[in-house]
Amino acid sequence: MQFGHFDDTNKEYVIQTPKTPLPWINYLGMDGFFSLVSNTSGGYSFYKDAKLLRLTRYRYNSVPLDSNGHYFYIKDGDTVWNPGWQPTKTELDSYECRHGLGYTHFSSEKNGLKAEDLVFVPVKDSCEISRVTLTNDSDQEKQISLFSYVEFCLWNAMDDMTNYQRNLSIGEVEIHGSTIYHKTEYRERRNHYAIYHVNAPVDGFDTDRDSFLGIYNGADKPDVVLAGESKNSVASGWYPIGSHHLKVTLKPGESKTYIFLLGYVENPKDDKWESLGVVRKAPALAMIDRYDTTAKVNAAFEELKKYWTELLARFTVHSPDEKLNRMVNIWNQYQCMVTFNMSRSASYYESGIGRGMGFRDSCQDLLGFLHLIPDKARERILDIAATQFPDGSAYHQYQPLTKKGNLDIGSGFNDDPLWLIAAASAYVRETGDTSLLSENVPFDNKEELAAPLMEHLRRSFDYTLEHLGPHGLPLIGRADWNDCLNLNCFSDTPGESFQTCANYESHKAESVFIAGMFVKYAKEYGDLCELLGNTAEKGRAYKASETMEQTILTAGWDGEWFLRAYDAFGEKIGSKECEEGQIFIEPQGFCVLAGVGVKEGYAEKAMASVKERLDTKYGVALQQPPYATYHLNLGEISSYPPGYKENAGIFCHNNPWISIGETVIGHGDRAFEVYKKTCPAYIENISEIHRTEPYVYSQMVAGKDARNFGEAKNSWLTGTAAWTFVNVSQHILGIYPTLNGLSVDPCLPSDIEGFTATRQYRGATYDIKVTNEDHAQKGIKAFLVDGKPIEGHVIPYDPDKKHYQVEIIM
């Protein structure tokens, strides 16, 4: 069942009913200011950090679902309704929500009155704009009231939800004309505040929530709106809001447009103005002036659309499969950009309070947006590296505003260091910019400990070598990629309560997954060493990689698939010897994509075992069989019910590893089959089962052992976005950046007879045409560059050349 459709021409998803299975959201903003907006106008805004600089309130786990939002109420006679349906939920005569790239457009109608609301964040500005247009489609004059509504958060979202004894006495606002200034905490901060403005004289306002709603009312029945008159309330302590009241008269066929602006404002850092209480309005007035007319807002909107058009033009594909095209050209890359901005910090599943930016998460996300914003990727790598410790380990998370490591989570996830090598290698392969490697970066954000990034990479490499277990495999620490596989977590004393990972440093659990990572990224580290002329270090890295590969083939092979790990007692995890959890997805995918066991035939066996034992109609499960009971020696993984999350759920993030593994052994049909099972465009018609947005990836889908098999959770902020784009662009389509030039070596499903693609790479444009009339899955018959044949599949890089015509016959 579908609740909307793709509009590929306008790069939009069109939602045709407000009653979607879950709120379907969009992200607005690309720099410092961000808003989340649902298809029923729910959501919130923040500046840079969803915890520390939250502008508006949102209530997670709320009843009814999806509260609060940025709402507009229309009172037309006795009828009150919202263009986005919520919160009044008045039955509308028509409704449409179009989620586009960086904007959302609502269009609804009730009783002959049409309301349109275009909401977006301008390029490089710290505000959200709503362009509200009212049109009288009836044959009678209409006199209506339009009320705006936002509820301000008192900046620190965690403190806002908990510290009531203080916060119910600090709310402060000012009202000047059509602008509401939210200045709570301005007395102590003195440099930031929020504004809510409309570009028309108002007939009233409210800034006190209890006055606007009524103490015992919800947002669905506000006293002020039902009465049709504002109270001109001024919040003092208690709950500050922003609401404007406009009385509008519309003749038949007449339209009127209003611009509402929600902005974050800082005074200049050198501003010595010390007066308490009254905000310094000049920066706000400058922001208001930039968007005070419809023409200015329309121009800002066109600039936003131009930004996305030019950005996504860096990689496009045209194939006979329109679903493949729309995911590659639009939605997959768009989601990669959102994960760049958010990591895992702010979604409808992450409150924006706890996790911040992840070390591992951000390194992986970078793989999906590097080709789009290499300069920002460079900055992100340096931010991540600065949270590394001198021994090569790292903080697992850091806060986006301070860029400092998260002390509450700490370190100990032993896969983290290797992801830094992956990110740096990908950057240099994409850009050819080796200056990154000599950039001085602090350890633990301490300038006195700064060293070149290449030294950070060396310590990442050595950290793994210096933390090997009894079988010669890397120690897992608190956990590896699977945060819930806590193999060192148990009580040393029978009957003692379990403490999460309290003993991980003193025990010897090992990870075959990290071993597979090391095989791949040790070589990439070695290649960077060679690029800088350090051939001895390259030799050391390659030798360590080869040694680790042999260790996997002996200590990490279970006969038909790769083991997952050894626990702290030296017992196998992910083995046929186990009663539960006999086979895991992670080592099968990563070991094969790293090339482990390919020539020995182990890779083929591992992929066959995945298909036989882990595959389902909705994707490849994380492990089988699930854990039916809790196992103290395994940690959190067995705390989930069977089929959910890490306990045999379909973790979409590592499905691409299986697909990439299939391309390594030349199985184009199987690689594409795995790709399609979790790809939103291919499963849009089961939205009533899947529930999450049909235009972006989710982190998890409930596995076959779950009660709600096929139901997805945790959409938007997931490494699935980056890894799937890596899979489809670099391995299925085969357009892969190397240190020496662009490689094109597709592994296609046999029913695709070819494709064309445009790829911008190191300042040049590559127009690529692949012909597959023989219905091959892998292999190149002819490779022409500008009409001349070349050997192999890497196009020689010429810094003076700006355009390449590439023709490949499979």
Automatic annotation (TrEMBL):
Pfam families: GH94_b-supersand (PF06165), Glyco_hydro_94 (PF17167). Gene3D superfamilies: 1.50.10.10, Glycoside hydrolase, family 65, N-terminal domain, Maltose phosphorylase, domain 3, mpn423 like domain. InterPro entries: 6-hairpin_glycosidase_sf, 6hp_glycosidase-like_sf, Gal_mutarotase_sf_dom, GH65_N, GH94_catalytic, GH94_Enzymes, GH94N_CBP, Glyco_hydrolase_94_b-supersand. Keywords: Glycosyltransferase, Transferase. Residues 307-734 form the Glycosyl hydrolase 94 catalytic domain. SMART domains: CBM_X (SM01068). This is Glycosyl transferase. It comes from Fusicatenibacter faecihominis.
